[in-house]
Design a protein that fits this description.
70 residues, 70% helix, single chain, mainly alpha, 0% strand
């Protein structure tokens, strides 16, 4: 279980969102946390992929390598 403190304005916005979704505070917060964690995981994977890339090629070289130039 996790307890968090929210200011009154944020709590009111959360209540409005939950009501609009036909849900409750816990579900809305849980979905937001899951989305946040997934986004951070995607960002880390993108950073790792970028770090593993070995240099770059010009468009001309890439087209040639892929056999797209006649």
């Amino acid at each position: 279980m996790l307890a968090i403190r929210l200011d009154k304005e944020l709590e009111a916005e959360l209540d409005l969102l939950a009501k609009a979704k036909g849900s409750n505070r816990s579900t809305v917060v849980r979905e937001a946390i899951v989305r946040y964690l997934e986004d951070n995981e995607d960002l880390e994977l993108a950073r790792l992929a970028q770090a593993e890339m070995s240099g770059s090629k010009s468009l001309s070289d890439l087209r040639s390598d892929l056999g797209l130039d006649n």
